[in-house]
Amino acid sequence: MSPAPRRGVLRTVREDLAAARRGDPAARGDLENAIVYSGLHAIWTYRLTHRLWLARGLPGARFAARVIGQVARSVTGIEIHPGARIGRRFFIDHGMGVVIGETAVVGDDVVVFHGVTLGGRGGEHGPGARRHPRVGDRVVLGAGSSLIGAITIGADSVVGANTVVTKDVPPRSVVTGVAGTARPRSGHEGVPPL
């Protein structure tokens, strides 16, 4: 995933609201969604904290980003490290318990359900160290799934509920089970098209 070009705040908010409508059949309207969807609150806070995290030469910016992120976690139940890289139209449905680690990279049009972890493995430190998953575009991460380590989930894949993934997943796959097993997607997995 390449760095996203800067977009206007209003355009980003509209895209996020559209992603909520597309990702949740129970979504009633933009105003209600903007007020009550904790996933939207979490991603909007993340977008602010990520800018602070990247602000070079602004003393205390990273500390402020972490503090704001922790306040958002207390309110939403969703923890997104400000160093993570998250693409456009990202939607978290019923987000309680979602954790996204510092070096995670998430593509565009990804849908995440509650209890998902994009966690690290090992103690690699320093610039360029990758400890967390990379998630391709148009991926759906089922409730309670755990993606652990510097793995890659290929585009257009579905990770089933409560699946534990510790190895790379090819594009257009479905992964299920503990010590997740991948198979090609048939297109009939009951997941709405993104």
From TrEMBL:
Belongs to the transferase hexapeptide repeat family. Its EC number is 2.3.1.30. SUPFAM superfamilies: Trimeric LpxA-like enzymes. InterPro entries: Hexapep, Hexapep_transf_CS, LbH_SAT, Ser_AcTrfase_N_sf, Ser_O-AcTrfase, Serine_acetyltransferase, Trimer_LpxA-like_sf. Signal peptide: none annotated. One of its GO terms (molecular function) is serine O-acetyltransferase activity. It holds the Pfam family Hexapep. Keywords: Acyltransferase, Amino-acid biosynthesis, Cysteine biosynthesis, Repeat, Transferase. It comes from the Bacteria. This is Serine acetyltransferase. It is an enzyme of class 2 (transferase).
